[in-house]
Design brief:
This protein has 195 residues and is α/β, with parallel strands linked by helices. It has one domain: Rossmann fold, CATH 3.40.50.150. Helices cover 35% and strands 19% of the residues. It has a seven-stranded mixed beta sheet, with helices on both faces. Helix 2 packs parallel to helix 3. The longest helix has 13 residues. It is globular and about 40 Å long.
Length: 195
């Protein structure tokens, strides 16, 4: 179903096709229902997660956070894309910087099944640490090394805190095929059989 849903959307949603398939597959595999996304952009990831939850026969509860300061026109596109997919009743857009809105959001929603963090937001590791008491599964996007000097993921710190990390070197299938990267992190002993 995910390919049909995303095929209806505009091109250039922000992630690679295989990135959306990984997000969709992880959400389906862990039977996620409640998901927080940090870095909405045009809404493609929220749509992929929503479709996964629906395909599992559940009612999605998705909160997606962005301040849209980098690309102000993207908020309108996100709203339009989510509406076009028919998911407005399942996806709540939360406007603001993650460090400002996450504490009050977690007070309201408590725990979630998964958190997506877009590494392009420059706060990947910091957002991970802020969210980790509230979930046992992360999908981490844009995990490639940053050529632009932006902040990179601190894998050692994440693994020291008791997380298993699988980093997939996904590439853009269109254009120059540059490395993007997506990772899955699960808390040891919660989403696997390790103690």
């Amino acid at each position: 179903m995910i390919n049909k849903t995303l095929a209806q959307m505009e091109t250039g949603l922000g992630s690679t096709e295989q990135g959306y398939l990984v997000m969709y597959s992880v959400a389906r595999a862990i039977q996620a229902v409640r998901i927080i996304e940090i870095g909405t952009h045009k809404g493609g990831s929220a749509i992929a997660f929503c479709q996964a939850v629906l395909d599992n026969g559940h009612t999605p509860h998705i909160w997606t956070i962005d301040d849209w300061s980098r690309r102000p026109g993207s908020k309108g596109r996100a709203l339009a894309n989510i509406s076009q997919a028919g998911f407005t009743k399942y996806i709540e857009l939360v406007q603001g910087r993650s460090e400002d809105v996450l504490p009050s959001l977690f007070q309201r929603v408590q725990r979630v099944d998964a958190v997506l963090i877009d590494g392009g937001m420059d706060r990947g590791t910091e957002d991970f640490i802020l969210c980790e008491p509230h979930t046992d599964c992360f999908v981490l996007k844009d995990t490639k090394p940053r050529a632009d000097g932006g902040r990179e993921w601190d894998w050692g710190k994440i693994e020291e805190k008791g997380w298993n990390v699988v980093n997939l070197p996904t590439r853009h299938l269109k254009g120059d095929g540059h490395l993007v990267g997506i990772a899955i992190a699960t808390r040891r002993g919660k989403c696997d059989d390790t103690a």
